[in-house]
Design goal:
Elements: E1 2-5, H1 12-22, H2 26-30, E2 33-41, E3 44-47, H3 48-59, E4 65-75, E5 78-87, E6 93-102, E7 108-115
Parallel strand pairs: 2-7
Antiparallel strand pairs: 1-4, 2-3, 4-5, 5-6, 6-7
Amino acid sequence: METKLDKTTLPAAVLGFVDGWQGRDAEKVESLFAENAVVSDEGHTYRGRDEINAWIRNSINLFTTTLSFLGAREVDGMVGASYRLEGDFPGGVVELEYQFHLDAEGQIAKLDFATASV
């Protein structure tokens, strides 16, 4: 069953990820991930803290973007937060859903990216 969420009801790790990424604060973003987390981004999978930290450090400053919140949902333990990204990356505009799976402590256990759902 899908539950609609608004920006004020998003979990702290979701808000922290977006805020940290936009602020280019790699340490803040790194702290949000569980030890054995998995991230899938642009056809690559990063497993565990060392690989995820390297992905963050190599990606966080690549492009300058502005995010506009489009909406959010929770489905079967996945929190999907959709944003419109505009910036200096190839194509210049994209609407993405950041798909977070959080562990019992509220840390990010898994993160995927998909086409925005709203």
